[in-house]
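Hi W.,

Here's what went into the run:
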Amino acid sequence: MASAQARTRTGTKATGVDRKIRILVGKPGLDGHDRGAKIIARALRDSGFEVIYTGLHQTPEMIVNAAVQEDVDAIGLSILSGAHNYLFPRVVELLKEKKMGDVVVFGGGIIPDEDIAFLRKKGVDRVFTPGTPLKEIVDYVGERVRPRA
Amino acid sequence: MYDRKKLKTIANGRAKWQEKTLGPLLARTPERLARFSTVSDEEIRDLYGPADVENIDYGKDLGFPGEYPYTRGVQPSMYRGRLWTMRQFAGFGSAEDTNRRYHYLLSQGQTGLSVAFHFPTLMGYDSDHTRSRGEVGQCGVAVDSLKDMEILFDKIPLDKVTTSMTINSPAAVLLAMYIAVAEKQGVSSHKIGGTIQNDILKEYIAQHSWIFPPEPSMRIITDTLAYCADHVPRWNTISISGYHIREAGSTAVQELAFTIADGIAYVQAGIDAGIPVDKFAPRLSYFFNAHIDFFEEIAKYRAARRMWARIMRERFKAKDEASWKLRFHTQTAGCTLTAQQPINNVVRVALQGLMAVLGGTQSLHTNSMDETLALPTEQAVTIALRTQQIIAEETGVANSIDPLGGSFHLEALTDEMERKAMAYIAKIDEMGGMVNAINRGYPQREVADAAFRYQRQVDAREKKIVGVNCYQMKEDVPIPLLKIDPEVERKQVERTQDVRRKRDGRKAAACIDALKDASRSPKANLMPVILEAVREYVTLGEICDAFRETMGTYTDPAIF
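Here's what came out:
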């Protein structure tokens, strides 16, 4: 069990003010399978991150606009409809257009191995598949994501 | 069910057993776990006996198959008369691709069809809408217009097969298309049989394919109830579904309670719309999950039948016995399948299929082993169908009706399940019914909490999943996966645009106006207007857009 202290995920921005790491959990596309996204949103929140959940049926544009508005440090995308090869890279592309290419994009869902390699090439930092323990995802975010300068 | 005196003797015997036989053993070797519980975390005792079922009145609580309260089955002869319908849910790529799969499944002994639509259809968008990019044909078959539906059912005689369509918000549109295809085959709407899911309430709770807010959605549903009662008498108008609630992470009790509460809401809405209860209730059917906890699931189906019979007779004063009967479809739980060691899923599905049959299901879909990875290949779906055929033809479980009825364990669980589900229903009644409960986010929150609790238990290895948190292996056996050709999207977009170019544009525009007018007038029934529109090749997206304009749209409250 992590101690209460370890559960406060903060970092120092250029301003010198401590703030929590902010994660946007997004559901791009039309599928309604949000069990995983919600569980992960809750696990991240319980682990001390600040979590914004977009809700279902978001376009890549809506997700990136939310990311800009909320000034997030990372985006976790969940998709189970098979449309990941279009939607994930589109989010990365739009982030770059908005000069937010340093936002860490990770994802999960029903994603075959061969597509994972493709998505990584397209700038998706990590893809989690069904059966991944929550701790593995929380640890990954804790280690990989830093407050953006 | 027992003589009081004998119960006392048995209770004494049990106390003695605990003291003399069990006690000394437990002192030497304690039980494996501090607490035994179902996958839904309901505590299970070590041994069930007569005392656990002493309050059951055989005549009132169990009865005989085909008789109230139907605990032992809705048909008098059950599978001795006719086996359940083997109905594999299928749909992928284009209408041509899926039509080929249907012909294959029928040739392999499948007895009914079940259509899986792709997400744009479920959400009321045509394939050429920007929101459909990347989704076309991925998770089901693309249907935009009557043209696609004609291809989907090409050379399938609609007076001979029954078809179930998993479609909710736009259910009335797809039903209209099905009726129109039948007309073209020369089959009257009075002769066709099948099911539309048409269960919008569970969409807000769990599956989340919605378009309009709850209130106008309920109106579309009551319009289909009224229309089908007069014109499509063999159609199951709502398949009240617990499946998705369970997949979203609910417990068995929640699945049962929320589903029956949804059923109550539909019956009330039908009555409020002025349709006599016995005119539409016999065509309501149910759809449950077959999860992984054997006895809990069988108890759930038996409790569901008893609850519905009592609710329909006592609460809604239905007189027709057909209104009391809960007929249900079952699908094995997709969420219990593992991406790790996927061939093990064949075993899970076999056990789940067995639960559904022992619970008295009317039809069954068995999942394919590869469904946590992609849509099923033909080989995988064949094994899944064969699994049902093995249960039916080899195991002997279909020889006797409700063969587990009378088991102390099962009857006690059935009772407990009913009691706990009724407590949930009372709570929902207090909130003013399911629509209000949904607007308050109540069932959504209950399900999300249960899903999170279970995930924590899995992570803590309190609940075990073979290959995931125990008995893991380094290398998984790779299995072939179905890939959807990206060309499907391009061709489908072309076809739909071609349909719009070739139809009578003036007639189509007039139909769209008529849809808007009818939807603004609460007294009108929308079904005839929708039927006219699909006949003129007005697309699904256009029909839904017309209603979006008049009814508004629903957005996710995003509760987590």
